[in-house]
Amino acid sequence: MKLKVGRKVYNTETATLVKTNTVSYFGDPAGYEESLYKTPKGEFFIYGVGGAESKYPEEQIILVTAEEAEQF
Fold it and tell me: Which residues of the chain have pLDDT under 50?
């Protein structure tokens, strides 16, 4: 997924996957998956996707600090 945040484009295809958390099972409206990525420039972001009742009802990219990435 690509998403422009401000003037920067974040892309799950060109970033390195660091870790993935899955909550519940595929098809659960409250279930979701969130993946932590690191860009080639060393920035971190979370890509989240989930069911209609989850914290990611639509695909999202959320920027996080290095400290937040460590706690992911």
Answer: none
